[in-house]
Design a protein that fits this description.
The complex is a heterodimer. Helices cover 60% and strands 17% of the residues of chain A. Chain A has a three-stranded antiparallel β-sheet. Chain A is built from four helices and three strands. By secondary structure, chain A is α+β, with helices and mostly antiparallel strands. Chain A is elongated, with a radius of gyration of 17 Å. Chain B is 67% helix and 4% strand. Chain B is built from 17 helices and four strands. Chain B has a two-stranded antiparallel ribbon with strand order 1-2. In chain B, strands 3-4 form a two-stranded antiparallel sheet. In chain B, helix 5 packs across helix 12 (223-230) and helix 14 packs parallel to helix 16 (303-327). Chain B starts with a helix and ends in a 7-residue tail after the last strand. Classes of the chains: A alpha+beta, B mainly alpha. Chain A binds chain B through residues 23-24, 27, 41-47, 50-51, 54, 65, 68-72, and chain B through 29-30, 32-38, 40-41, 53-54, 57-62, 64-65, 68, 72, 339-343, 377.
């Protein structure tokens, strides 16, 4: 269905996996997921959201006004869920392979 | 840093950031959303202002989104009509000034070298009739009269079609047929385009005319190359201007660089216009001229060329500055369309005033001075001035 996607894109999809989130919440969620290793900048996030929305992986699910500021919520579409699952499976497979090889190396040593 | 300098730099930054995003994003307030997120992030990290790297990120992301919007935009009859009209006017003005009325300095040199041809009065070819038709069309679009625009377009098309016959009968030079064919096709835009497009065609006219003027002005040394293309029976190697192609001298990179900057600025202006596809089409049509100019700058080094180019520099810069000034207000989000006030405005020391597109700095002697937002609600403009 999809080629390999870049890490920020994957993380945005992962951040939206459990529930719809607005822009700043996505940044926070990604920071939490990566233990602060990756912090998405605002511009990068919205460029990614624009691309994902155009690709049909993410859609706007609503908006609310908080403190006079508009917040749009984004959610994964069915296609987005499939892509995320596929990519996650691929990454897990890579991780399994890497782990296996590391164990072999350890055994040989 | 002085008060004004700080304010101006803040508002300029904001304008640049806003301008980097496509029109739809500004109109729907999505740009404000990006600014809100940036401001929230700064506040959470305890920063008084966004870092340069964050602003750069927003700017380039905006450009990226703009590029994607452009690529996604469908090509419909409206866009096509705008493109054809703008391109036609741009190309006609460039052809007229480049090919038909060489600048005095060049004309003197041409005369000195005894060039004699079947010219059309003071003009090089009969093509001036077509180009003049396009300039009339440009004027007609300013009236916003659909009937007048269509009538002028029909007249210009008729002249274009009849030109080869006229040239044959009179023995006067004419532009090459491919150029006439291109002009004929471009005529179909204003002739057959939707009425509402024709009424709004002045935008396209402005864009096309501006690009044509810039290209022409930037093509000082390219005048002869342009003439050799437009004029019948001449070429770069054996035509009347071959003198320039092979001449020696110096055209430094320093001469070329300002033009590149001006053209880049012009492209930015055009691309952010609502009818930006028209501008892109104009640029596409004018690309051969641009390449020709670049080639001339790289090869023609005659001192007269350099002098003429230098003389044109202030004119082009003036045009570019006037264009930028006329666009100044458009660089701002229309305040009556703004529903929220981004905290980034405060971080950048920019305050909006009562629905007008006005930017001002907070009074440094009255910290916390309340100002009225465009939506009518009162808000506090912060506590510590950074001006």
């Amino acid at each position: 269905m999809s080629d390999e996607i870049r890490e920020p894109t994957y993380l945005v999809l992962a951040a939206l996996a459990d529930q719809p989130r607005h822009g700043y919440a996505i940044i926070g969620e990604i920071e939490t997921m990566t233990s602060g290793r990756i912090t998405l900048r605002a511009g990068t996030l919205y460029a990614a959201l624009d691309r994902l929305t155009a690709g049909g992986w993410v859609s706007e699910s609503g908006q609310e006004v908080v403190n006079g500021r508009l917040r749009r919520y984004y959610t994964l579409t069915t296609v987005g869920v499939e892509v995320l699952a596929e990519q996650t499976e691929r990454l897990m497979e890579h991780a399994r392979q890497a782990t296996h090889r590391l164990q072999l190396r350890k055994a040989e040593a | 840093m002085s008060l004004n300098t700080a304010c101006n730099s803040g508002s300029l930054t904001l304008r640049l950031l806003e301008a980097s995003f496509p029109y739809e994003w500004r109109r729907s307030g999505r740009v404000n959303e990006v600014f809100d997120v940036l401001a929230e992030d700064c506040a959470r990290r305890g920063r008084g202002r966004p870092r340069f790297v964050d602003l750069t990120d927003v700017f380039f992301s905006g450009l990226l989104i703009r590029a994607r919007c452009f690529l996604r935009q469908p090509l419909n009859s409206e866009v096509l009509a705008f493109a054809l009209l703008g391109s036609g006017i741009g190309l006609a003005s460039a052809c007229l000034l480049l090919g038909e009325v060489p600048l005095p300095a060049y004309r003197a040199l041409v005369t000195d070298h005894g060039y004699v041809a079947h010219t059309f009065g003071p003009f090089v070819t009969l093509g001036v009739v077509v180009y003049a038709g396009w300039l009339l069309l440009a004027i007609a679009t300013l009236t916003r009269s659909t009937r007048l625009v269509r009538a002028t377009a029909g007249l210009t098309l008729g002249l274009t079609v009849l030109l080869p016959t006229l040239a044959h009968a009179t023995g006067i030079n004419r532009p090459p047929l491919w150029l006439l064919l291109v002009f004929s096709l471009m005529n179909l835009g204003p002739l057959l385009g939707p009425a509402h497009v024709v009424r709004r065609a002045w935008v396209s006219t402005a864009v096309g005319g501006f690009i044509g003027l810039v290209l022409t002005a930037c093509s000082g040394p390219g005048v002869f190359a342009g003439s050799s293309l437009v004029g019948q029976g001449t070429s770069g190697t054996d035509g009347r201007f071959s003198f320039y192609w092979d001449s020696d001298g110096l055209a430094s990179l320093a001469t070329r660089l300002p033009w590149f900057v001006v053209l880049t600025a012009a492209v930015f202006c055009v691309v952010r216009w609502r009818a930006f596809l028209s501008g892109v089409a104009v640029a596409a049509v004018a690309a051969p001229w641009l390449m020709l100019t670049a080639h001339q700058w790289a090869t023609a080094h005659y001192s007269a060329s350099t002098t003429s180019t230098s003389g044109l520099a202030p004119a082009v810069l003036l045009i570019a500055v006037l264009m930028l000034m006329s666009l100044r207000n458009r660089w701002l989000v229309r305040r009556d369309q703004v529903t929220t006030v981004s905290p980034l405005l405060e971080m950048l020391d920019v305050t909006t005033v009562t629905g007008r597109m006005t930017l001002r700095c907070r009074d440094p002697h009255r910290p916390g001075t309340p100002s009225r937002s465009p939506t009518g609600s009162r808000r506090t403009a912060g506590t510590g001035p950074r001006c």
